[in-house]
UniProtKB/TrEMBL annotation:
This is Phosphatidylglycerophosphatase and protein-tyrosine phosphatase 1 isoform X2. GO terms for cellular component: mitochondrion. Signal peptide: none annotated. It comes from Octodon degus (Degu). The gene is Ptpmt1. InterPro entries: Prot-tyrosine_phosphatase-like, PTPMT1.
Amino acid sequence: MAPSVWLGASLARALFYPTLLYTVLRGKLGGPAHREWYHRIDRTVLLGALPLRSLTRKLVQDENVRGVITMNEEYETRFLCNSSKQ
């Protein structure tokens, strides 16, 4: 792997948790700073951020979610999301 690619991947990993924390906090704030975690596109599709474990029950029960397609890196989901076995 080229040094610039390796540096970019390392930087992405280092910045992931601070930016995730920022995004979570913006979701909890009211007013113009508030950001929704997901949006309903149509009857069967939700589009949103990382499906955190704390949202799983709500997504399954309230939104009828039966599956998740993610484009995240494995390190982004390892500790924060349910696995397919869960």
